[in-house]
Design brief:
CATH architecture of the largest domain: 3-Layer(aba) Sandwich
CATH topology of the largest domain: Rossmann fold
Number of strands: 15
Shape: elongated
Strand order of the largest sheet: 3-2-1-4-5-8-11
Largest sheet: 7 strands, parallel
Length: about 375
């Protein structure tokens, strides 16, 4: 459903998968979308266009702005020129190792990022016009459950990134309370998409390479660890809904889909027509092919001779990529869903289907480019 009067949105941190999907979502809603990107970085507007339902809108309704994250003067000039109805601050440096190696840079860019936005909106006299969203991370908080209610409580953080996120969270709350601004935080729990280069995406691509005969097996340290799953397309709708309420509030966004890494791998292989059974315990656990759907493989243009019955495709061992080190968080999210009138559309099977097809295509393209 398009907006009756075209709104103007300004997005920071658009290079991540949430930013790309959000830009496409807002364009389909009829927004004029302005994107702030770091100078020298490439923004894939063609990808945003491909994700839009009404692709001709892309050329007329999205405008790019270069800005250094530390340049508050230029940021203010952009906000003054754009006169946004909504600002979505998605900028973050989520890799703990990187943030700990460059703590001063992390704090200067990200801890002060939302402060620069809030202060610019305040000084430009746009507090009544402009609504501000700040995307936060579950790394900053422990989520407590009290009789079905959820709330956010700070706790000790072990990285510069988490500490900067904690500062940004409370800065947003402070400006909302002090200056009566519509400014809100949303803590986004784990979610995925074909555009994300994190753990799930790397597992998907490894499975694609195994199916194509390009890799023997996948090594992981722990198959029993629980993970949360969710499609970024659902999450950006929730992000948008946080700014459509009568009163600003902070939210925790979580679809509620959970499974072990083991089950995620099993379902991902099954998407290709390969049935994998897990056997053994502890370090001796492994995943073995016990059935192959040859018709399914043929439809996906996968050579059935590239894989074999009884082939071990998953083993316990040192992974070829760094696994995601996060604590599993479980909570009741009905309050957020009901409050925002948010109904997620994607289940785990749909997410895996989308990621598997994308991963298969990417692996084939990578192989072709290397020939």
């Amino acid at each position: 459903m398009l907006c009756s009067v075209k709104k103007v949105a300004l997005i920071t941190g658009v290079l991540g998968h949430d930013g790309v999907y959000l830009a496409a979502f807002l364009l389909d809603k009829g927004y004029f979308v302005h994107v702030i990107k770091k100078q020298g970085y490439f923004f894939n507007s063609e990808l945003v266009s491909a994700l839009c339902q009404d692709r001709p809108l892309i050329d007329r309704h999205i405008i790019l702005h270069d800005n250094d994250s530390k340049d508050s003067t230029n940021l203010s000039a952009i906000i003054q020129k754009v006169q946004p109805d909504e600002i979505y601050n998605l900028g973050a440096q989520s890799l703990d190792k990187r943030s700990n190696k460059s703590p001063e840079y992390c704090v200067n860019v990200y801890e002060l990022g939302i402060l620069r936005i809030l202060e610019a909106v305040r000084l430009l006299g746009l507090t009544d016009k402009c609504r501000i969203y700040h995307g936060s991370s579950s790394e900053i908080s422990s989520l407590l459950q009290e009789e079905g209610k959820d709330k956010v409580a700070p706790f000790y953080s072990s990285s510069s990134y988490a500490l900067s996120q904690l500062y940004e969270y409370w800065t947003t709350v402070n400006y909302r309370d002090t200056y009566q601004m519509y400014a809100c935080n949303a803590v986004l729990l784990n979610h995925q998409s074909p555009l994300e280069a994190a753990e799930a995406h790397k597992i998907i691509k490894a499975i694609a390479r195994i199916a194509l005969g390009m890799q023997d097996r996948l090594y992981l340290e722990n198959l029993s660890v629980q993970r949360k799953w969710g499609n970024a397309k659902d999450y950006v709708e929730a992000i948008w809904l946080t700014l459509q309420q009568n009163k600003a509030a902070d939210h925790v966004i979580d679809i509620g889909l959970t499974s072990t890494i083991r089950e995620f791998i099993r379902l991902s292989f099954a998407e290709l027509g390969i049935e994998v059974e897990f056997c053994g315990r502890g370090e001796q656990e492994k995943g073995v092919i016990i059935d192959i759907d040859e018709e399914r493989l043929a439809n996906l243009n996968i050579d059935k001779d590239a894989i074999k019955f009884g082939q071990t495709v998953v083993k316990i061992g040192e992974p070829i990529f760094s696994p995601l080190k996060v604590d599993f968080i479980s909570m009741d999210t009905d309050k957020t869903k009901i409050g925002l009138k948010w109904t997620p559309k994607y289940d785990l099977g749909m997410l895996i289907n989308e990621m598997m097809y994308s991963g298969l295509s990417q692996v084939r393209e990578e192989e072709f480019s290397q020939e």
